[in-house]
Amino acid sequence: MDQFWENEYIQIAADYSVVILCLIVFLAVFEIVTKYKNWEEIKKGNVAVAMATGGKIFGVANIFRYSIEDHDTLLSMIGWGVYGFVLLLAGYFIFEFLTPKFKIDEEIQNDNRAVGLISMIISIGLSYVIGAGIS
Fold first, then answer.
1. How far apart, in whole angstroms, are the C-alpha atoms of residue 6 and residue 104?
2. Is the distance from CB of 58 to CB of 124 less than 8 angstroms?
3. What does DSSP assign to residue 131?
4. What angle do CA 133, 83, 108 make, to 5 degrees?
5. Angle at CA of residue 37, ends 121 and 97, nearest 5°
6. Which of 31, 42, 87, 117 is 20 to 30 A from residue 107's alpha carbon, by CA?
7. Are 49 and 36 in contact (CB under 8 A)?
């Protein structure tokens, strides 16, 4: 059985499967945290929500990329990925706090693409910083 788990293809499939499941859970958490429904807004064509959500997806995937590169067990990879997600979520709240003149969620829900773009760039940028820290 050890030979089965040492197979590179099996390891890639296991990492992939776990990251997809974590991504679904993390997106559900983001859905709870935001005041709008991501997928309903995207279905309506809200580009700002699509950019912000895309940035979150990229950010989480990038954090897991670092985690997979530097941690040899599935559990440690998940642990560091969850920790990175928590830091990314904290970055979201800091972004909201640092913009007291307007509400990020309301602007993104109203399809303010400038705010959606900044939100996406923050998620992507922080994912590199978080990833470098966990590697």
1. 45
2. yes
3. H
4. 95
5. 50
6. 87
7. yes
DSSP state letter for 7: -
Q: Per-residue pLDDT tens for 56-83? A: 999 999 999 999 988 778 899 899 999 9
41: DSSP letter: H
Tokens of 8: 């590179």
Q: What is the pTM of this model?
A: 0.89
| DSSP annotation of 135 | -
Phi, psi of 98, deg, nearest 5:
-80, 0
CB-side neighbour CA atoms (13 Å) of 108: 27
User: What is the DSSP track for 67-92?
Assistant: HHHH--SHHHHHHHHHHHHHHHHHHH
Task: Extract the tokens encoding 108.
Answer: 């993104």
Spatial distance between the Cα atoms of 57 and 60, rounded to a whole number of angstroms: 5
- Residue stretches of the chain with pLDDT short of 50: none
